[in-house]
Specification:
Shape: globular
Radius of gyration: 24 Å
Helix content: 55-70%
Number of strands: 9
Distance between the termini: 50 Å
Structural class: alpha+beta
Strand content: 5-15%
Largest sheet: 7 strands, mixed
Length: 580
């Protein structure tokens, strides 16, 4: 069951859902980009993902990485695949042409990342942070650092890492102990231990750039005392820097990715951004990474849908009850109501997530290149609101849908005979790293909904209500009603928070899922309007209409359960220790 890039739906989102042929000419940076070029890029990315990465997915999982005298060897085929990736110019896709990039829209970068993660998550972990590191250095690096290191990132000759976590400090960065001391020549001696560093050591690129959070001797306590430093694997004089890989994690999934424990022993590094301003610089990279992690969830959902669909179309069991089907093929399991529902949910959620993920990336393009400052600011606000929803909701769906897809296989799904068991294992980590989903929920509700007085949510609801007004029939009614419910819930949360400061934290997870469901309603309401541009008898139009109906009939009712869950969070939670 070979993985295939979902090119038809990707093109539908770009052409009809986003209408990029109308929006790109309004952005000077993309004035020369049209739909034909975008389709060519996607087709080439599909060819690379299908022919180079997908065949290495299972073998990379079985072989894993190995540590030999401090050097990491990735699975067979991984280095050659990376060379092909670099030769294809893929690292430069959405980078500034003045730095050797191709200057293409971030929405195409999002589509590329979906394909990379969907075809081979383990391999894609090595490249997944590169664009975020590029943005971080471009925004906060000195001219000297940019001149020295950005060309290598853009060309793919160098791969970066993000070094935050330490043994005693996971999500709580205020507990970081790594330190950086001035050497007197403009550089710093970085010392400390970092844990769970994806691609901390490997054999894909010659140099590795570690972006490390550490403390200066005069740093204040807490997260406000952190600085960001760039620590290369190799120093400018050709000597190896004092960065050592002490071990590899043996993991549930993404076994082709080298997850390293790193030790820095007075390693030479350079400051990125301002002293004690490390989080501001690092968050540029983390926000990019969180969108990419959401795309991992989408990639797994799409892979799970393809695997379950292909299996259900060939697996025979008992005859389907109540179906007026010809005797030939009547025992295929895809005809059973339970399987039809599972398969439809896999397809509908995957396609809805794709539209929303590309929409968020499109807002980032507008935030970067729109002519009017107000338009850029509004686009940035919308992208910031969407990012935690995409990261948390999409990764949860990636795991949940992989589990539902495995159920289609029955007992065979629990064996290594089929790829679905690896998809399930690989998908689980995305709910944890780059800020756990619980942290994403707190970020959304506490900082981005309650924290700004409701301005951002009002902007988002304005976009959704504009779509409801442009839509017709059931789609308009359902989306308008969903917006009303979301607005009422958030107003009540704001009121309740005034008397119970813990209440928003108890309600945050369900609030995020509520937002995700409303956004899915928006995605399918817009789709209902967009399919009018497709030929009346086109198979894609029929399939999209089936998906629209299924969403509003079977999935939108989740909204009422989520509304009730947010209300139920008004009840205080007991403390577990006191219960014993």
């Amino acid at each position: 069951m070979a993985w295939k890039a979902p090119l038809r739906d990707m093109q539908f989102v770009l052409q009809h859902w986003l209408r990029v042929d109308q929006s790109w000419p309004q952005l000077a940076a993309y004035a020369d980009v049209d739909l034909d070029l975008a389709v060519q890029v996607l087709e080439e990315a599909a060819r690379f993902s299908e022919q180079v990465l997908a065949p290495l997915n299972a073998s990379g999982d079985r072989q894993g990485c190995r540590l030999e005298q401090g050097e990491v060897r990735t699975p067979d085929g991984f280095p050659a695949a990376y060379r092909a990736f670099v030769e294809g110019g893929w690292p430069a896709l959405a980078c500034d042409p003045s730095l050797g990039g191709q200057g293409l829209p971030l929405v195409l970068e999002a589509a590329l990342q979906e394909m990379l993660f969907g075809s081979n998550h383990g391999w894609a972990m090595y490249t997944g942070i590169a664009h975020g590191a590029y943005l971080c250095l471009k925004s906060h690096g000195s001219a000297a650092l940019q001149a020295r290191y950005l060309p290598g990132i853009v060309s793919g000759q160098t791969l970066p890492t993000m070094c935050l976590t330490e043994p005693q400090a996971g999500s709580d960065l205020s507990l970081l102990r790594s330190r950086a001391e001035p050497r007197g020549d403009g550089s710093y001696a970085v010392t400390g231990n970092k844990l769970f560093i994806s691609g901390g050591e490997h054999d894909l690129s010659h140099d590795i750039l570690h972006l490390v959070l550490a403390r200066f001797p005069d740093a204040p306590a807490g997260s406000r005392g952190l600085s960001l430093l760039l620590v290369p694997k190799w120093q400018g004089n050709g000597e190896r820097n004092a960065v050592y890989c002490d071990g590899l994690e043996h993991k549930l999934g993404i076994r082709g990715s080298a997850t390293c424990a790193l030790r820095f022993e007075a390693a030479r590094g350079w400051l990125v951004g301002q002293p004690h301003g490390g989080l501001a610089a690092m968050f540029v990279m983390m926000n990019s990474a969180r969108l990419h992690v959401g795309l991992q969830g989408l990639g797994h959902a799409e892979a799970a849908w393809q695997q379950a669909r292909d299996y259900a179309l060939e697996r025979r069991q008992m005859n389907t009850p109540g179906q007026a089907k010809a005797a030939q093929g009547a025992d295929l399991i895809h005809l059973h109501p339970a399987m039809r529902r599972a398969l439809l949910e896999l397809r509908v959620r995957s396609e809805g997530m794709r539209a929303l993920a590309y929409w968020a990336a499109h807002w980032l393009d507008i935030a970067a290149f729109a002519d009017e400052p107000e338009q850029r600011a509004q686009a940035a606000t919308l992208a910031a609101l969407l990012t935690p929803v995409i990261k948390a909701a999409f990764t949860e769906q990636g795991f949940s849908l992989a589990s539902k897809a495995l159920q289609v296989f029955g007992g065979y799904g629990y064996t290594q005979e089929f790829a679905i068991e690896q998809t399930l294992r690989d998908s689980r980590i995305a709910m944890i790293y780059e800020g756990t989903n619980e942290i994403q929920a707190n970020d959304l509700l506490l900082r981005k909904v309650l924290g700004d007085g409701g301005e951002g949510v009002a902007l988002l609801l304005g976009e959704l209500r504009t779509e409801a007004a442009a839509s017709s029939g059931r789609a308009a009614t359902e989306l308008g009603g969903a917006c009303d419910k979301l607005q009422a819930v958030l107003a009540n949360v704001r009121s309740m928070a005034a008397g119970d400061p813990e209440y928003p934290y108890r309600a945050a997870g369900d609030c995020l899922q509520l937002c995700a469901t409303v956004l899915q309603a928006f995605a399918w309401a817009r789709t209902a309007r967009c399919i009018e541009a497709l030929p009346a008898l086109a198979a894609q139009r029929r399939e999209k209409q089936e998906s629209i109906d299924f969403f509003f009939d079977y999935l939108l009712p989740d909204l009422d359960r989520q509304v009730a869950a947010v209300a139920a969070a008004a009840a205080p939670l007991p403390f577990i220790a006191e219960a014993f």
